[in-house]
Write a structure and sequence with these properties.
71% of the residues lie in helices and 0% in strands. It contains six helices and no strands. It has 113 residues and is mainly α. The longest helix has 20 residues, at 93-112. Helix 1 (12-18) runs antiparallel to helix 2 (21-30) and helix 3 runs antiparallel to helix 6. It has one domain.
């Protein structure tokens, strides 16, 4: 147990690495700030688990990405297309490629922290 009998904070980065959405979601809500790379990985987990709230979460991530990362229009298009493909369960190979590209973006964003 953590302070005052509360359970200790779940490490968001570890929860994201493990890919377990409930722990990652709880860890994100325990924090006052989630970094852009963490938000992307959390969004990707929601797509993988076909969470019904994925579309609005993906849109919020895209807006935040535009505000914080100051991407080019081409980068915005690639991220939007990747998020769109992840939200399509029958996307198959396209989803695998989108997942790889978005995971690479998450690594790049993490390096900027």
């Amino acid at each position: 147990m953590g302070l005052a009998g509360h359970p200790p904070f779940v490490d968001l980065d570890k929860a994201l690495e493990r890919g377990y959405l409930p722990s990652a979601w709880m860890a994100a809500h325990e924090r006052s700030y989630v970094t852009l790379d963490q938000a992307l990985l959390l969004t990707m987990l929601m797509a993988r688990d076909e969470v019904p709230r994925y579309p609005p979460v993906a849109r919020r991530f895209l807006i935040r990405f535009i505000r914080e990362a100051k991407p080019t229009l081409e980068q915005v298009k690639r991220v939007a297309d990747g998020l769109d493909v992840l939200g399509t369960p029958e996307a198959g190979v396209q989803a695998i490629e989108a997942r790889k590209a978005l995971a690479d973006l998450a690594r790049q964003l993490r390096e900027r922290r």
